[in-house]
Amino acid sequence: MVYFLNKIKAVLLKPIVLVGIIIAIVVLIFVFYFNRGTGPIYETVTAKIGSVSEQVSVTGHVKPAEDVKLSFEKSGRIASVNVMVGSYVNSGQILATIDSNDIRAQLAQAEAAIDVQNAQIEGAKINLSGNANALVDKIRDAYSKSDDAISTQVDQFFYNPTSASTDLRFTIADSSLQKDVDALRVSIGQMMSKWSSSLGNLSSNKDLGTYSQTAKSNLNQVKSFTDKASSALNILEASSYPTQTTINGWKANVSAARASIATASSTLIAAEDAWSAAASNLSLRQTELASDVANVDNYKAQLAKTSIVSPISGIVTGVDIKPGEVASSNIPAFHIISSGKFEIEANVPEADITKVKIGSDVNVTLDAYGDEVIFKAKVVAIDPAETIIEGVTTYKVTIQFAENDERVKSGMTANINIKGKVQSNVIVVPQQTIINRDGGKIVKVLKKDNTISEVNVEVGLRGYDGNIAITSGLNDGDKVILFQK
Question: What's the structural domain count of the chain?
């Protein structure tokens, strides 16, 4: 036993063995110390208040905002070509013309016809005005003669002629006729009162036709009344009152009244006919003037077709006609591109098109100038119909530069960043922190005591930079777990 203990002591006391034992003990101590209580290691991000924005990035090519090919609208021999390739033209500038002498002559004749017609219309207006004034006078005269015939000539043989209970001063054998005459005097009085009131608004600018028809109707009523009064007098027998002399005087007055009404009717009708004829003549002249104006417009339209006018300001890039040639209609003669405004056409995938709106701000970089030079632009149009490119549904979006810039050239490759919606003042975390579970969304939050809490969250906008807006569930400063080591 002692022998074996001495052997072990001898082995342990050898230097190399002693060193190995010491190293093993140190390693065991290190492992034990640093691994005691150690759990999983997490990488986290801090939830912060910020903004999340959408952005659609596509590429396209610069093209002129306006690019037109122009041609004559009618055939003819070319009289002049006023520009050449490379010329700068303004909107409205005449580029070329074809011979237009015949049309110009026809236009001059049509314009002369208008001058004649205008002069005739002025004469017709003067004539109508004179006849209108004459008709006004005859309408007033008709009332005046009616009033005189009744109040001066006929009312002599009526008691209280202006009251509702008026009646004849005598009795005749025909009682029915006597009642008719009495009733007519009452109705005539009412009619004359209305007629007088209406004439206060009468003038040559009013609807004279209506006034004239009213006057003719009223004259007929007065005529009917005087006819009845005359019939009553014709069967009236003389007595102590009225005597034959009195009756004869009444008859003479009524006869004069009837003659005055007949004259007023005939002169009114003549005045109305003259006024109506003058109005018809003016209307005819105005119709003929409208026809002459249409003639002039037609020749002017034909004359316009003998010129090519630039609809835009820009640079002429193509001229395909020469003076003396016969130009055919609708065959392109000029090609013009706008010199200032340029635009970009880009195809946006279906998945992103809802993020793009007309008026959206756009940042553009051009390959020719690198990523450091940014050009401002806006979306100005979105095609409603899809375009299929290599099996992918896209929509053509037109983007126009905000300012004219001489550095921009047609055909340049453009890198386009279209700005979408922005959600501000929200909690922002990376999208990969979101876990979908049971139809909801959660994030794992590392607490101060190194425990983990699963928090239900509601999300908002997903940003183009990989971040997402948290609208509820997180607080500013929360440590959110990205992944576990």
Answer: 4
Residues of the domain holding 24: 2-35
Q: Distance between CA 159 and CA 167 in Å, rounded?
A: 6
Same domain, 263 and 149: yes
Report how far residue 286's alpha carbon sits from residue 70's, in angstroms, rounded to the nearest whole number. 39
Pairing state between β 387-389 and 48-64: unpaired
pLDDT band at residue 4, thresholds of 50, 70 and 90? very low
Q: Please write the tens of the pLDDT for every residue from 363-387.
A: 999 998 888 899 898 888 898 888 8
Q: Residue 378's closest CA among 342, 339, 351, 350? A: 342
Tokens 């492992």 -> residue: 31
Residue 432: CB partners within 8 Å, gap ≥ 6?
466, 482, 483
